[in-house]
Amino acid sequence: MGKAAKNAAFQLATASTAQKNQALAIIADELEANAATILAANAKDIEKGREAGLTEALLDRLLLNEERLSGIANDVRNVISLNDPVGSELDSKVLENGMSLSRRRVPLGVVGVIYEARPNVTIDIAALCLKTGNASILRGGKETFFSNMELVKVIQSALAKANLPAASVQYIEKPDRELVSQLLKLDDYVDMIIPRGGAGLHKMCKENSTIPVIIGGFGISHIFVDESADLVKSLDVVENSKVQRPSACNSLDTLLVHESVAAEFLPMLAERLADKVTLVATPNAKELVAQAKEVRDAVEGDFDTEWLGYTLGVKVVKDVHEAVDHMRIHNASHSDAIMTNSLENSEIFINSVGSAAVYVNASTRFTDGAQFGLGAEVAVSTQKLHARGPMGLEELTSYKWVGKANYLPRS
User: Fold this and answer.
1) Strand 89-94 vs strand 100-107: parallel, antiparallel, or unpaired?
2) Facing residues of 112 across strands?
3) 381 close to 215: Cβ distance less than 8 angstroms
4) Which pLDDT band, with edges at 50, 70 and 90, does 105 fall under?
5) Rounded mean pLDDT of 79-91?
6) What is the pTM assigned to this prediction?
7) Residues 352-376: b if buried by 16+ CB within 10 A, e if exposed
8) 408 pLDDT exceeds 80?
């Protein structure tokens, strides 16, 4: 598979934008044309997932329906409309010796992606890699087996119709974990590994891979409501961040509230989320959310938990500095927000938190490739090298130096 992917990547690197877009258009059309088959396969995965005792959050990630499948197809069409970064020049200059020098974007080569119960990732990765001239080797979780088999059939059929090599997108069908270990050592053929899943998957890839690994998708998301915030609007933002799709990696995990507004804001919060969310509160917050339907004392580890469900940690803090200190300790690396009308506090927050995406008066749910205008995304990177936040087309490219001269006999 590695050899085939590397050969495919060589062909993709010189494929025209029109040819790549043609493949993407066929993928989008075929997804809709084969919707019944794809959804039937997904129903098998859902049934097996329930039998295996998967949580509702994981089942939600796994679920495909007509609306979601249509959205996936439209995301592919959106990628077609985006500029192809391959071949574009980052900058250029003329040296004193007369040679023109530039940096030109090129594909990475072969991208290996290991992911869990997210069948949409199969299409997202394939679409973005194809647009950027990269081959991909995919390995989804056993929970998505039937869905992914049908999705990969659609992709490879589209590749053939566009006269591109089928090995441009390959899928590791067997659930054997030993194959994942082999993929992580395939540095002769694979140029980057992207894990999409929980902290355990990221840790395993980071510790065992001989290939560069993009770390992301995991992090505790926070909202801090400061003393100057509009409390009514803050309620709307908190509710959206928490319950709009709690299984997403950018959903809210911890709410921090300034002590001067906590007595007013937290009872409002408890009433708004009473039938939706279980609150996990520190002692100074618990007494203010006592009317919540479900509330319990926070224990060690709660504020380090990515809930991925209808649970929310709540804590009262004395100021923006204590909020930032809490976030530093509890892995604020993904998506975090401040609700404020203070320019000073917003700047302190923006400059202090180490998150890949930081918001002022906006939901953490905006951390998404489509929302950012990037098309789909291959991952949300929380590391500090190469790429951060939603990884779109440009993040799947590298560059080469190109020097042009009439004739320079020596350096």
Assistant:
1) antiparallel
2) 137, 193
3) yes
4) very high
5) 93
6) 0.81
7) bbebbbbbeebbbbbbbbbeeebbb
8) no
Q: Which of 175, 140, 169 is nearest to 154 (CA)?
A: 169
Q: What is the CB neighbour count within 10 angstroms for residue 313?
A: 23
Length of the chain: 411
Q: What are the Cα distances from residue 226, in Å, to 233, 235, 328?
A: 13, 13, 17
E-state strands within 153-307: 169-171, 192-196, 222-225, 254-258, 278-281, 295-297
Per DSSP bridges, beta strands 169-171 and 100-107 are: unpaired
Which range (67-76, 120-129, 400-409) has the least confidence?
400-409
**Strand order in 135-139's β-sheet?**
169-171, 135-139, 110-115, 192-196
Instruction: Determine the 3-state secondary structure of 224 from DSSP.
Output: strand
- For the record, the structure tokens of 259 come out as 């002590």
| Single-letter amino acid, residue 12 | L
Amino acid letter, residue 216: G
Q: How confident is the model over 280-304, as a mean pLDDT?
A: 90
Closest CA to 221 of 243, 252, 244, 246: 252
pLDDT bracket for residue 290 (50, 70, 90): confident
Q: Give CA angle at 373 (157, 21), nearest 5°.
A: 25
